[in-house]
Prior knowledge:
The chain is mostly beta strands and about 260 residues long. The chain is about 10% helix and about 45% strand. The mean pLDDT is about 95. The strands form four sheets. The chain has a five-stranded antiparallel beta sheet, with no helix packed on it. Strands 3-2-4-5-6 form a five-stranded mixed beta sheet, with no helix packed on it. The chain has a five-stranded antiparallel beta sheet with strand order 13-12-11-18-17, with no helix packed on it.
Amino acid sequence: MTYQTEIEDWRADRLAALTAEDGWLNLTDRIEVAPGRMTVGRAPDNDVVISAGPDHLGVLDLAPDGTATFDAGAGPQPFQPVPDNPPRLKVGDLLLERSQVEGIYALRVRDAAAPARQNFPGIDYYPLDPAWRTLADWILLPQPQDLDIDLVTGARDRVRITHEARFTHDGQQVTLLPTHEKSGKPMFVIRDRTAGAETYGAARFLIGEVEGDKLVLDFNKAFNPPCAYTDFAVCPLPPRQNIIPFAIRAGEKKPAGHD
């Protein structure tokens, strides 16, 4: 497989994930909820009012430990665990998810018939540039470090850092911290000098590929966070170490319609 084919396949997979039933384009609601039993639906007499689906969708039962069931008329059905995602349950055309940020639970609702998903114009990329495929040193820290990460909502999350990635670009040494994981791979929340004007202003995400004591950082695969596509996502902001002092014109540009 050529490098260009690899990137084309990656872009096709990225588009498929974004426009899938559980993609970010059809997220219609995110409502914080406390443990208990509550009615859910579009009508204002519900305990939890959502913007999609029928007037009275059913009853959500959320336990203090976060386990949840939903009764849409056929008896309580459990939310099912999904790798790299919150527990979820399909109810008609709606996909319900029980998310959690900093100990606070929320009900997320995705509508498979959402117009944004059907009318999505696609993803805009910089031209492919193999020079932005970087082999970094993958360095184990002497001791794990706890790091506070700001979220777009103004809240903070705490993550544990065990490694750092270090590389040099045009004589400048760059050290990036992997604050998250995706499918067992380190994920970096980054921002560079293109932010705001050319790329999404808050951040982009980049997933590394570990190769022994090295890490492949392919900035041609830098992608927009969920909050670039919906106001109902809670995205992390980059730690100061991941604010890169030069422009990286590779990967995804900011979505259409963003200033």
